[in-house]
């Protein structure tokens, strides 16, 4: 990440020379790699902010269905497994193959019946 700091400093020095003021600056936020776009406003990714981390505790997800409340444990398991394997830096399989494998694994797993009960909250 020191490389990014140096690059920011160089760009900021150039901007100061060109504009004559230090008002305009570039700031490094994060690198998003790998990233998977699933549709409009639907994606998941691994973010690297201060250090390179390809195995974060939690993936960043936007618009992905497994994040929503009251989803079945089965959906959460399948979604998380697919996303984790797709974001693995050593992955060589297509997303289609990952989905096939994960669905087979979920089918053979023993599930607790209580994991399929969803409590509906109805606002009156």
Structure write-up:
Helix content is 38%, strand content 15%. The chain is built from three helices and three strands, in the order H-E-E-E-H-H. The mean pLDDT is 83.
Describe the structure using short key phrases.
124 residues; alpha+beta; 2 domains; 3 strands; 38% helix
| Strand composition percent | 15-25%
| Secondary-structure content class | alpha+beta
Count the E strands.
3
Indicate the radius of gyration in whole angstroms.
21 Å
Number of domains: 2
Helix residue percentage: 25-40%
Q: Which helices and strands appear, and what pairs or packs with what?
A:
Blueprint: H1 2-19, E1 31-39, E2 42-48, E3 60-62, H2 73-87, H3 95-108
Antiparallel strand pairs: 1-2, 2-3
Helix pairs in contact: 2-3
Summarize the structure.
The protein is of the alpha+beta class and 124 residues long.
